[in-house]
Amino acid sequence: MSINEDSYDVIVVGSGGGLVGAYVAASRGLRTLVIEKTDVVGGTVAYSGAGLWFPGSAPLRRAGVEDDVEEARTYLRDVVADSSREGVQDAYLRAGAQLIDELEQNPWFQYFAHGPVPDYYSSRPGATRAGRTVFPPALAVADLGERYELVRRSLPTERWGFDEGSVVSGGRALIGRALAAFLETGNGTLRLNTVLDELVVEDGRVVGVEAVSDGERVRLRADRGVLLAAGGFERDRELRERHQQLTGEWSNGAPGNTGDALRAGIAIGADTDLLDEAWFVPGLIQPDGLPVFHSGTRGGIWVNGAGERFVNETRPYDQAGHEIVRLHAATGVRHTPCHWVFDQRQLDRDGIGGPPDEPLSAKWLESGALKKADTLEKLARVIDVPFDSLDRSVKEFNGYAATGTDDRFHRGETPWDQMFHHVVGFPADPRQNFPAKSVPGFPNQLLLPIDTPPFYAATIVASDIGTKGGLRIDENAKVLRPDGRPIEGLYATGNTAAAMSGRVYPGAGTPIGSSLAFGYLAVLDIVGPTD
Questions:
Q1: Is the predicted pLDDT of residue 494 greater than 90, yes or no?
Q2: Residue 164 CA to chain centroid, in angstroms?
């Protein structure tokens, strides 16, 4: 039994990228409610660098980047290679630049900036080395005031108590700015600790939600529409076992992402797509036993359970993550977890899990997250792989180091790889990258030989930054039935919706860009052409 029935124009379920859509609705005078199942806002966006892959947007022009949306369309068509997604791709390309123009009119959002991250499939038609990714500006904690406590902390802060200081960047800056802008419209309401249970349908139209708020059941009415923006189902073991190989314990998604919105949509007849997919990434196991998203390996090699190297370790993270998952399923050889093997010279140059100059914490060795041995033969025994295979893999790699060319997996040849001559970590996120150091005497700094004892092995697993399958939507973010008809009054965006990019990750900022773009398109449809 519902204890009340509060009424709004628009209800947004979830407070990650959907918070920007909520702002867009509230800024147009719509009474807008955001419900969030946890006690903070931000979802997985708060963990991210907040890149937005928005071709043709104003920040690119300000940076002097020549970017033709038609070239981006050519690129998307080629890498996704799925004609059924062309309509939503076109909608995405229209919305991104338009949304940035609108957000930059509000002083809370200020001005976004271009980040030079190459498109991930650099050899494909329409790809650009300069990239099409834009980022929000950093934000002083003092500017948020008491609202700062409402924003989800970064993953390092949640996991290890990392002190973020007086300025937040990346996803936390985007969420903080969106939250302030939303609340200051005077039309926005935020309700935390409120879990979606089911959608309310009248005469075939979604008119609200039933939820559990602080332990009490409530009915919340939406006169104009409901936008589902509650993330994916990466933290739900049952759904992942049903649809995927992985079960979620190694996910880097936010803890509240358990598929509530997906289930609610399915319950009223929504169609789904890509439920077997995720934004897979390599995860480096930390001393606490859990992984963090790992990108841009500069040295050493990854070997599988047979002691064999199997991938370009520096390739774009989604491609590397998918390759781990694919080979684990297809070969009968364990690829997750696998082993990152390197030597003392590599550790001295780049460190592990932090700034290159930071001394190795004893926790790495004490916990077993990092294993150490005087010889490769001893290391092979410690990580339980055949020494002859490991020795062969290392010798082959050392040969490539001598010539500067990785003949087998071509590490260091793409624009993405070549960024890591200059940085350690993830180039797009200022919290996670550091100036790279070089070792004289080697032709390719991404191919240093593994020959300086002692030797080390860390653990790499198939992780993710969210699932990417969900409710099928149209060009206006309307949720569709299996026959293609929309469910009136219901919209979806972000990882609650099936990705417009299909099974690929075209460039940095595609997931969050999609969340913002389709949330924006949903609100434009709700408002209509005459409002």
A1: yes
A2: 20
Phi then psi for 493, rounded to 5 degrees? -150, 175
**Closest C-alpha among 47, 51, 12 to residue 514:** 51
Res. 37: pLDDT tops 90 = yes
Tokens (6 digits) for 467: 């699932």
Confidence band for 432, pLDDT divided at 50, 70 and 90: low
Q: Who contacts 298 (Cβ-Cβ below 8 Å, separation ≥6)?
A: 314, 346, 349, 350, 420, 424, 436, 445, 446
pLDDT tens digits along 123-179:
999 999 999 999 999 999 999 999 999 999 999 899 988 888 999 999 999 999 999
Q: How far apart are CA 299 and CA 321, in angstroms?
A: 18
Contacts of 55 (CB under 8 A, 6+ apart): 67, 69, 71, 72, 93, 96, 97, 132
Query: In this structure, are residues 160 and 142 in contact, taking their beta carbons and an 8 Å threshold?
Result: no
Length of the chain equals 531
Longest dimension (CA), the chain: 74
What is the DSSP pairing of strand 188-191 with strand 32-35? parallel
CA distances from 154 to 177, 247, 265 (A): 15, 23, 30
Q: Can you point out the beta strands (E) in 229-304?
A: 272-273, 278-285, 291-293, 301-303
Proportion of the chain above pLDDT 90, given as a percent: 90
Helix (H) or strand (E) holding 73, with range, is helix 69-80
Residue 183's alpha-carbon distances to 227, 313, 387, in angstroms, are 18, 44, 60
| 444's tokens | 């390719």
Strands (E), 256-314: 272-273, 278-285, 291-293, 301-303
pLDDT of 274 above 70: yes
Contacts of 514 (CB under 8 A, 6+ apart): 92, 493, 494, 497, 499, 500, 501
